[in-house]
Amino acid sequence: EVHLVESGGGVLRPGGSLRLSCAASGFTFDDYGMTWVRQAPGKGLEWVSGINWNGEITRYADSVKGRFTISRDNAKNSLYLQMNSLRAEDTALYHCVRVWDTAAVGPLDYWGQGTLVTVSS
Amino acid sequence: EIVLTQSPGTLSLSSGERATLSCRASQSVSRYLAWYQQKPGQVPRLLIYGASSRATGITDRFSGSGSGTDFTLTISRLEPEDSAVYYCHQYSSSPPWTFGHGTKVEIK
Q1: Contact with chain B for residue A112, Cβ under 8 A
Q2: H or E stretch covering B31
Q3: Which chain A residues contact residue B100 at CB under 8 A?
Q4: Mean pLDDT (whole number) for A29-37
Q5: pLDDT tens-place string over residues B42-89
Q6: Which regions of B1-108 does DSSP assign to beta strands (E)?
C-alpha cells in the first residue's frame, strides 16, 4: 500500500525558513515524479512544485519561484521542500503527492495527509 | 498561466439525480485534465485523468468528457457519499499546472 508521510511543518515568522520532508513507501519511488500541493485553511488546491523521477527536472509555481527548492533522495525514498523567505500567504497544509508518471507533471494519484505551515508575526 | 473556471460554485441535488460539473480552461489543455473529489477532513482523491479515463477503483457513476477548453464531470445517480468538493486540474505542457476553485456538491 502506498504511504506518503510529511513532516517538518511548524509556526514561524515572516522571512523564516523551513524544510519539509516526505517519506514514501509501498511503491518504487524512483519510478514516479513527485509534487507538492498546498491548501490554505478553508481554501482550494494550489500546485507548488514538481520534480521528475531522477531529480533532473524541477518546476515551480510563480508564487514560490526563487524561494522554494524541491529535491529528492531516491536512496532514502524521500522528497523535500526547502522553503526560504516565507510569507504570510505561504500559510497552508502542504501535501506530498505522487505523479502518475515519471515526469514532474501528470495526474496526482496518491496524496499524503499533509504538514501544516503557519507563517505569522 | 492557464486559468480553470469551474461552475457552478455549489450544486444542490437529491439522491438519484444526475450532477453535471463544468471546467473551462482559458486556453487549450488538450486532454490533460483531471478531476478530484475532496470530502471534508480528507485528502483529494483522483477520479478522472486524461479528461475521460477513470482512475483505479472509481465507480462508473463518475464520467468525464471534453477536450481543448471545455470539460465536464458527470455523476449519475447521486448518492449521499458523493457530497464533496470537486476540483479540476490541468497538467498540460508548461507549468504552472493549475487547479480550478472547486464545485461543492450537496445532497439534499
Answers
A1: yes
A2: none
A3: 44
A4: 96
A5: 999 999 999 999 999 999 999 999 999 999 999 999 999 999 999 999
A6: 4-7, 10-13, 19-25, 33-38, 45-49, 53-54, 62-67, 70-75, 84-90, 103-107
